[in-house]
Write a structure and sequence with these properties.
The protein is α/β, with parallel strands linked by helices. The chain is built from 13 helices and 21 strands. 33% of the residues lie in helices and 21% in strands. The two termini are 45 Å apart.
Length: 489
């Protein structure tokens, strides 16, 4: 049976054939003491619906599913199911994200302790949590053993366990009517070969630095990158996007070889396990970790499977630091340019699975809006990182709560929402074969002037109860190019 959202070439579509723009948030509980279940209630899902969002990337933690080898925690899965059902009450789609940070629940979240093999290496957290990917041997060794499918305590490969856990999860949850797909693994990381990646990137940086300012020692750079008081001094060179591009491109062949071999192999196996229960759910494919920063990806599609989407992340270098507000516009543009290149190669719809991570600081509003502009430019879907109940009180929320087309009776060509003016413009190529309206969400529907092409077109405004927000519905009337302009009255 076809799900509520499918893929059609490079677009998401609904059951009525309309192009769908998925716009939502991540909801991921990483807290083991809560058994990885967030303390969300119907009020949270109602709020998300009021904001106009239509999809949730719901985090699933392997340690929660399989706390002991081959033993699955049905109580955890049932609580996930309850969250999915609450989302469905508010017409919110869900796709499941097998989440990990630093591979393991021992270091961050993800794999159970029994599947974490470190060869005696010790984990030590750094000032910026994600730097452990680059510099910590325990994290790197744990990934090595995962990619090599090293046997776990029961003699079965730990990657095989991961794949079977996916199969069990999907068997239990795929019947939920609002589940649209599966994000196969969050931010897959290369493991110990990152040391070669580091060497390439830091030596390239040192070369650029010496060309401009004089000699610098690579060991000095490594130490500076681990020291927050010095790290920021070196970031200024990477404000030059050409220098930044040289650095992130330097290890491309190492990372792409990983994607073409280990990552593609995992995706094929996980897809096979998923398809045993769900023949139609969308497979959301992520890139290697470094493509989040702008490295080109050579991710491969799962063979002989027509329902896939490209789901990269987009984070500037300063994410997770106190300098998040200094994110560089041109670096962000490069990240989106690279993702668009990969999307075209794959001929899939694109959903930016994570962006933001502003943690509701008030000085990142301009960064949020710039990313909104890039999402609008590439007509892609997105899920913001991440949901907190009072996120609407921060300026960084601007790029999240925006006017956008939820469903288009044809092909979306362009759109743009202006926060300060509360104006919206959109153009689409309407299809005569779709007997359903185009639906547009706006945060404020009071006193609007609406101009439609053709001029004799009709529309209907539908408010959302107890808010200023609502929808504009434009009935399908013609075959060809249509446009709408909405201004404040």
């Amino acid at each position: 049976m076809r799900g509520p959202v499918k893929t059609n070439g490079d677009r998401f579509t609904d059951k009525l054939g309309r192009q769908v723009v998925l716009h939502g948030v991540n909801m991921v509980c990483k807290d083991r003491s809560q058994n990885y279940i967030g303390s969300w209630s119907e009020k949270d899902f109602e709020k998300i619906k009021t904001w106009g969002l239509n999809v949730i990337r719901l985090g699933v933690i392997w340690d929660g599913i399989e706390p002991e080898p081959g033993i699955y925690d049905d109580d955890y899965i049932e609580k996930l199911q309850q969250l999915i059902q609450m989302a469905n009450q508010y017409n919110l789609f869900v796709f499941l994200d097998m989440h990990q940070d630093l591979f393991s629940s021992e270091f961050g979240d993800g794999a159970p302790a029994w599947a974490t093999i470190t060869d005696g290496e010790m984990y030590e957290p750094g000032h910026v949590w994600s730097d452990a990917y680059l510099f910590n041997g325990a994290v790197q060794k744990a990934f090595d053993h995962f990619w090599n499918n090293t046997p776990g305590p029961d003699g079965i490969g730990i990657q095989d366990h991961f794949i079977k856990a996916w199969g069990y999860l999907v068997e239990k949850l795929h019947h939920e009517p609002n589940v649209i797909g599966y994000d196969l693994i969050n931010e897959p990381f290369i493991g110990s070969p990152v040391q070669q990646v580091n060497e390439r990137m830091f030596s390239t940086y040192a070369q650029i630095y010496s060309e401009r300012y004089g000699e610098v020692d690579i060991e000095q750079l490594f130490k500076a990158w681990s020291d927050p008081s010095n790290k920021h001094n070196y970031l200024s060179l990477l404000e030059d996007v050409e220098a930044f591009k040289r650095v992130v491109d330097s290890p491309t062949h190492i990372l792409q070889a990983f994607e073409e071999s280990h990552l593609s192999s995992l995706y094929r196996k996980v897809a096979s396990a998923i398809r045993e229960s769900d023949k139609d759910g969308i497979l959301f494919l992520e890139t290697n970790y470094f493509s989040n920063l702008g490295t080109s990806s050579m991710i491969l599609p799962v063979e002989n499977d027509s329902t896939q989407a490209y789901a990269p992340h987009a984070y500037d270098l300063v994410t997770d630091t106190e300098l998040a507000h200094t994110a560089n516009d041109r670096r962000l543009e490069l990240i989106f340019e690279r993702h668009e290149e990969t999307r075209k190669r794959l001929n899939m719809p694109m959903l930016i699975g994570e962006w933001g991570a502003f943690y509701e600081t008030d000085n990142t509003g301009h960064v949020s809006v710039h990313i909104q502009r890039l999402i609008e430019k590439y007509l892609c879907s997105d899920t913001y990182w991440d949901y907190v109940p009072d996120m609407d009180k921060s300026l960084s929320f601007l790029g999240v709560r925006r006017g956008f087309p939820k469903a288009v009776a044809g092909q979306l060509l362009q759109y743009r929402y202006e926060h300060s003016l509360n104006t919206f413009q959109m153009k689409w190529d309407e299809s005569p074969n779709i007997a359903a309206p185009t639906v547009i969400y706006l945060p404020d529907i009071r006193k609007l002037n609406i101009t439609l092409s053709p001029k004799d077109s009709t529309f209907e405004i539908k408010p959302i109860d107890n808010t200023y927000a609502g929808y504009i519905e434009v009935p399908q009337t013609t075959d060809g190019i249509r446009s709408i302009t909405v201004t404040k009255g």
